[in-house]
Write a structure and sequence with these properties.
Layout: H1 3-10, H2 22-28, H3 33-43, E1 44-46, H4 47-52, H5 83-93, E2 108-110, H6 112-125, E3 130-137, E4 149-159, E5 164-168, E6 191-192, H7 193-201, E7 210-211, H8 219-233, H9 257-270, H10 277-286, H11 288-291
Parallel strand pairs: 1-2, 4-7
Antiparallel strand pairs: 3-4, 3-6, 4-5
Helix pairs in contact: 2-6, 3-6, 7-8, 7-9
Length: 295
C-alpha cells in the first residue's frame, strides 16, 4: 500500500479530530478493535433502537433499557456532529468519559454515522489508518422491510499484519441475527455506494431496492450515499443534510444523461479507491459540483 495513502487515513478530519481528548483516546482506551467496538456501543444508543424501545432486537435489553432514556432524546446527532462534540458530551454526562458501565440515561442517542465517526477517531488517535464508509446494508432485518438494502455507515481500518483493509460494522455488531464476524466482514456483504450506483444504472438492480432512514428510496438515495462516501474517502465526512446541489430533490430529476455519466465515472473510480486515490483526490480538489455541499 502506498504510504502516502495510509498517511492520509491516519490524519484527522474536522469531524474525527478529538481535540483535547486525544490523550484519553490514545492512552486510556483498549487497543483491541473488538473491545473498542464494544466500548463504543455501550456509550452510544442507535436512534432506531430508541424508536423500537424494548421490543424486536432489543427485547432482551442487549442495548439497555430504553425506558430509562429521557423521552426528549429523539436524536442528538443533529447537534453532536463531530467526534470531539460527542466525547465532550460523554464526559459532561459522566466525568469518567468513555466507559463500559455507562448508564442508559447518560448515553448519546445518535446514528450509524456518529458511531463510525467516533470509531474512526479512536483508531486514528492510536495511529491506525482508518476511514468512514457509506453504503447499504442488506443484512439488517428491519420489520416489514426484509430483503431490501438500507443506508448505513461503517468503518475500514488498515491491518499491517494482514496487509489489507478490514471492514467493520460497530453499529450493527450486536444485532441478534448477525451470522458473520462484524469485525472482519466478508467481502461484498456490505454494498458500497459506488457498486449500488453502477448496478442501478446498468439495470442489474431496481432503484427502489435501496432505502434511507428518512423514508426515501431510489437512485437519489444512492446518489446521496455515493457523495457521502466520496467525501469520507477524502477525509471530509459530511453530515446527512449536506449533499451536492446536483442531488437535491428539485435538481436530481432534471439531470441530463451526460451528468449521470459523469457520476458513473466517479463511481467507477470509487470501486477501487486505493488504486484510483490520486484521481479521486484530483476530482475532489477541482470539481465544484462534487465538492461543494449544501444543506
Amino acid at each position: 500500500m502506498d504510504q502516502n495513502i495510509l498517511n492520509h487515513y491516519k490524519a484527522f478530519s474536522h469531524a474525527t479530530f478529538p481535540g483535547c481528548y486525544l490523550g484519553h483516546l490514545r492512552n486510556k482506551l483498549p487497543h483491541d478493535t473488538r473491545k473498542l467496538g464494544g466500548l463504543v456501543r455501550k456509550n452510544l444508543i442507535q436512534k432506531h433502537i430508541l424508536q423500537i424501545h424494548n421490543t424486536q432486537s432489543n427485547s432482551d435489553l442487549r442495548y439497555g433499557d430504553m425506558a430509562k432514556v429521557p423521552w426528549h432524546r429523539v436524536g442528538e446527532d443533529d447537534v453532536l456532529t463531530t467526534a470531539s462534540s460527542m466525547i465532550a458530551e460523554l464526559f459532561r454526562r459522566d466525568p469518567r468519559g468513555i466507559v463500559l458501565d455507562r448508564t442508559e440515561e447518560n448515553g448519546l442517542v445518535v446514528s450509524c454515522r456518529n458511531v463510525a465517526l467516533l470509531m474512526a477517531s479512536i483508531l486514528k488517535s492510536k495511529g491506525i489508518p482508518a476511514r468512514v464508509r457509506s453504503g447499504f446494508s442488506p443484512y439488517f432485518e428491519l420489520e416489514d422491510m426484509r430483503g431490501l438494502s438500507w443506508d448505513h455507515w461503517i468503518n475500514q481500518y488498515w491491518n499491517n499484519k494482514k496487509n489489507r483493509w478490514i471492514t467493520i460494522d460497530v453499529d450493527g455488531s450486536i444485532e441478534p441475527y448477525i451470522n458473520f464476524d462484524p469485525y472482519d466482514m466478508p467481502k461484498d456483504l456490505f454494498v458500497f455506494s459506488a457498486d449500488a450506483w453502477l448496478k442501478v444504472r446498468s439495470g442489474e438492480i431496481e432503484p427502489n431496492h435501496f432505502h434511507n432512514a428518512g423514508g426515501t428510496s431510489g437512485l437519489i438515495v444512492v446518489a446521496w450515499e455515493l457523495f457521502y462516501d466520496f467525501h469520507s474517502l477524502m477525509n471530509n465526512e459530511p453530515v446527512y443534510t449536506n449533499t451536492p446541489e446536483i442531488t437535491f430533490f428539485k435538481v436530481f430529476p432534471t439531470l441530463k444523461n451526460e451528468d449521470l455519466e459523469e457520476i458513473d465515472k466517479l463511481a467507477q473510480l470509487m470501486q477501487n479507491p486505493d488504486e484510483n486515490f490520486y484521481k479521486l483526490k484530483e476530482l475532489f480538489d477541482t470539481s465544484r459540483k462534487f465538492r461543494i455541499l449544501r444543506g
